[in-house]
């Protein structure tokens, strides 16, 4: 009832597109909840959501969204683009067959070092360390003791540690995360959850788009100028080398801290050659929007939640 009223109201608004943000899709997310948390969708839910997109909306590619904001091509009303962050192998293996079944194009934004090293991004590593450690006490950097059996203390420590790690990148970031894993006596995570380059080539051959999500997943608005340049340009270069095509799409990581982008990061995106850049800021993509700072909307964990987010977004409301 509620979504029907919202849908009726949206008919009278100017055209716009919603860019949906997903991460991981698994047949049974339960074994990975301590690692991926709320960024993983059950396959059954994802399939139903794609069915709804195909039947009630107009799935489009990020390339079409780009042409739309530049005024080069109109889009049907209620257009929706599907994107995935990080580069999990299940995007191809689990979500891919569903996307093909419903004829939905998608874009995956790849954390390049994670693909090359077959290592989950640092937010998932820290989450795993704090939520699975058997230690009963831990001393935070700076000397504050923590009682880890307390769930609230675990989450608070995870949040504080994530805020610090978001401002690190490259070797310094890796050394910090590895030290936390050692302190909490959690061994390296060995399962291969990330795409390989060959899988990413298959993704592109199937008609989807591949874009960069940096090298090491920092909050790029909180790192130094040299690190910013490297995270954006080197990830692009390596992807182009592996995929033999120009990489013009980029997604800002939003692991922790605010803001996640700035005028400086926009300038560097433009300088290194990105043409379509998405953020984690919720909102509708309208004609004339800045192609280097497009809004995205979280997909929600239920079909009803997805409809609610979409319909409110088409009405110009942030969700």
Instruction: Please indicate the percent range of residues in DSSP E strands (runs of 2 or more).
Output: 5-15%
Classification by helices and strands: alpha/beta
Tally the beta strands.
Answer: 12
On the 0 to 100 scale, the average pLDDT is: 94
What order do the helices and strands follow? HEEHEHEHEHEHHEEHHHEHEHEEH
User: Could you estimate the helical fraction of the residues in percent?
Assistant: 40-55%
Fill in the CATH topology of the largest domain.
Answer: TIM Barrel
Give the C-alpha Rg: 20 Å
Please state the overall shape, judged from the principal axes of the Cα atoms. globular
CATH architecture of the largest domain: Alpha-Beta Barrel
Largest sheet features: 6 strands, parallel
The first-to-last residue Cα distance is: 19 Å
Figure out the total of helices: 13
Question: Low-confidence stretches at least 5 residues in length (pLDDT < 50)?
Answer: none
How would you sum up this structure, described in words?
With 319 residues, the chain is an alpha/beta fold. It folds into two domains: 239 residues, Alpha-Beta Barrel (TIM Barrel), CATH 3.20.20; 62 residues. 45% of the residues lie in helices and 14% in strands. The protein contains 13 helices and twelve strands. The strands form four sheets. Strands 1, 4, 5, 6, 9 and 12 form a six-stranded parallel β-sheet that branches. Strand 10, helix 12 and strand 11 form a beta-alpha-beta unit. The protein is globular, with a radius of gyration of 20 Å. It starts with a helix and ends in a 5-residue tail after the last helix. The mean pLDDT is 94.
């Amino acid at each position: 009832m509620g979504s029907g009223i919202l849908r009726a109201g949206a008919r009278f608004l100017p055209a716009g597109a919603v860019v949906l943000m997903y991460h991981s899709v698994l047949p049974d997310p339960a074994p990975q909840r301590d690692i991926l948390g709320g960024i993983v969708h059950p396959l059954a839910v994802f399939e139903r959501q794609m069915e709804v997109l195909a039947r009630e909306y107009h799935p489009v590619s990020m390339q079409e969204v780009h042409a739309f904001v530049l005024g080069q091509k109109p889009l049907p009303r209620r257009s929706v683009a599907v994107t995935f962050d990080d580069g999990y192998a299940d995007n191809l293996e689990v979500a891919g067959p569903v996307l093909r079944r419903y004829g939905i194009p998608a874009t995956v934004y790849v954390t390049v070092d994670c693909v090359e090293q077959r290592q989950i991004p640092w937010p998932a590593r820290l989450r795993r360390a704090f939520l699975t450690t058997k230690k009963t006490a831990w001393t935070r950097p700076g000397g504050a003791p923590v009682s880890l059996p307390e769930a609230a203390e675990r989450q608070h420590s995870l949040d504080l540690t994530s805020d610090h790690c978001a401002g690190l990148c490259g070797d310094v970031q890796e050394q910090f995360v590895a030290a936390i894993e050692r302190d909490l006596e959690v061994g390296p995570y060995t399962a291969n959850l990330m795409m390989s380059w060959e899988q990413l080539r298959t993704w592109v051959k199937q008609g989807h788009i591949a874009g960069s999500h940096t090298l090491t997943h920092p909050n790029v608005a909180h790192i130094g100028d040299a690190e910013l340049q490297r995270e954006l340009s080197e990830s692009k270069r390596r992807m182009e080398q592996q995929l033999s095509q120009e990489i013009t799409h980029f997604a800002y990581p939003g692991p922790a801290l605010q803001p996640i982008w700035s005028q400086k990061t926009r300038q560097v995106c433009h300088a290194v050659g990105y043409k379509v850049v998405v953020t984690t800021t919720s909102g509708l993509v309208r004609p004339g929007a800045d192609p280097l700072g497009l809004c995205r909307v979280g997909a929600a964990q239920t079909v009803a939640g997805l409809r609610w987010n979409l319909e409110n977004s088409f009405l110009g409301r942030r969700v």
